[in-house]
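Design job #97: recover the sequence.
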């Protein structure tokens, strides 16, 4: 869960401090599409990962534009409800709260679109993401409950499902909570806000019920002042509730989103790991962050609570993150001194699409030739070393070290870090070389750029 601080206090579904409440369009396990019309906005929630030929379910919300004109408000509502939502030829009225449809075996040829239509034709559309290939089959038969739930946030629960929301029911103690989307690989629910502590989570799918005690973790953030004068100091207070009994380390990320306005003590991007020993007897963790204004005005600080990723196998590999277990090298004692599991998991390398130009010293060439030395004014032998300026592609992968207790049972959890590497583009010939040449008589060295 994230929080942010702006001019006044705002709780962002990951909390912000600034002045109003907004939803975060990026949520775990969901594709969220907002289609705006002259009469209002239509929001469609669909599973994040969808494969050809699957049956899936999602939800739709129609929000008419609202003004002080009561007659206009009624007109907007009627016009919006008269609009039809179409997905792969399936048509839905906007008064439906849930959507269920099956994807064709080859959806890419159909141009996967979400469309809005009225009596005049198509009035809006959005792209639609469909995965290639087949969904990995989970080796685990039961749903994989997360280590904890985040209050006020969407939460995905992996498992084997039929993709039909009407067959699924989620309860948090005696409160039924909504299912926002369902695919054969996971369901996504919205956890109610302002709830914290141990609750009983029950999931019923196809007549079978799975239950487990579950902590709901709630993040709150406040600021002593919401506008500052240049040079003025203040404090941001962050409190995480509902941690009593949580054995998995909890990650809190704090970001200064307005570095031109304030500086944050400890750095503008911070990550804290809350261990069970950091939690007080009431299940609460609290921390203060000092800030100082570098310019007068408002500011934005964001805080987010996240659960460690769950690693579980599918088709011999792990799902979603596609993490692979890496054998620890001899002498590698990660986590052992702290009594932690220390297993290492790494995802596949992925091309970021970013390139850099760098010198490649491993491809340097040397030669000797005659030229006039500007320093000793004679024709002498020069020793030349040319180093090509090459294009490198940047790749990234995620690395997780399990921070569960040594000898734990069940799935591994841990904090994820990102590694980068660069690979030279072998198909692109260097266009420039950095040449270092040395006069063999006077020893004078000079550096210059030469064309490829």
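Job complete. Output follows.
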């Amino acid at each position: 869960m994230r929080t942010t601080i702006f001019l006044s206090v705002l709780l962002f579904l990951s909390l912000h401090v600034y002045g109003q409440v907004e939803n975060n369009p990026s949520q775990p396990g969901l594709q969220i599409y907002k289609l705006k019309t002259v009469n209002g906005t239509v929001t469609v929630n669909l599973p994040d990962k969808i494969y050809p030929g699957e049956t899936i379910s999602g939800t739709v919300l129609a929000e008419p534009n609202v003004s002080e004109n009561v007659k206009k408000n009624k007109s907007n509502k009627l016009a919006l409800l008269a609009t039809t939502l179409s997905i792969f030829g399936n048509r839905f009225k906007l008064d439906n709260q849930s959507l269920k449809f099956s994807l064709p075996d080859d959806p890419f040829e159909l141009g996967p679109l979400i469309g809005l239509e009225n009596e005049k034709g198509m009035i809006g559309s959005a792209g639609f993401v469909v995965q290639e290939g087949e969904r990995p089959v989970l080796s685990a038969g039961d749903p994989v409950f997360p280590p904890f739930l985040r209050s006020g946030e969407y939460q995905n629960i992996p498992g084997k499902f039929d993709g039909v929301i009407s067959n699924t029911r989620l309860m948090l103690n005696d409160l039924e909570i909504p299912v926002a989307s369902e695919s054969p690989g996971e369901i996504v629910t919205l956890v109610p806000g302002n709830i914290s502590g141990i609750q009983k989570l029950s999931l019923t799918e196809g007549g079978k019920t799975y239950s487990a005690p579950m902590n709901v973790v709630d993040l709150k953030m406040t600021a002593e002042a919401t506008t500052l004068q240049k040079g003025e100091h203040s404090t941001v207070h962050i409190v995480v509730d509902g941690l009593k009994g949580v054995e998995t380390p909890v990650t809190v990320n704090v970001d200064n989103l307005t570095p031109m306005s304030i500086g944050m003590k400890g750095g503008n991007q911070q990550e804290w790991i809350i261990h069970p020993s950091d939690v007080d007897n009431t299940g609460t963790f609290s921390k203060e962050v000092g800030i100082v204004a570098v310019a007068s005005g408002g500011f934005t600080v964001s805080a987010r609570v996240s659960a460690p990723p769950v690693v579980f196998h599918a088709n011999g590999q792990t799902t979603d993150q596609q993490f692979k277990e890496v054998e620890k090298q001899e002498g590698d004692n990660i986590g052992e001194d702290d009594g932690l599991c220390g297993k290492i998991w790494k995802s596949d390398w992925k091309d970021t699409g970013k390139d850099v130009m760098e010198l490649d010293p491993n491809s340097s060439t040397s030669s000797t030739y005659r030229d006039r030395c500007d320093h000793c004014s004679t024709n002498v032998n020069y020793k030349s070393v040319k180093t090509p300026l090459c294009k490198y592609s940047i790749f990234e992968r995620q690395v997780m070290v399990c921070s569960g207790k040594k000898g734990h049972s069940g799935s591994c959890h841990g904090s994820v870090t990102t590694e980068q590497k660069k690979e030279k583009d072998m198909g692109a010939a260097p266009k420039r070389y950095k040449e270092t040449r040395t006069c063999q008589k006077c020893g004078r060295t000079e550096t210059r750029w030469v064309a490829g």
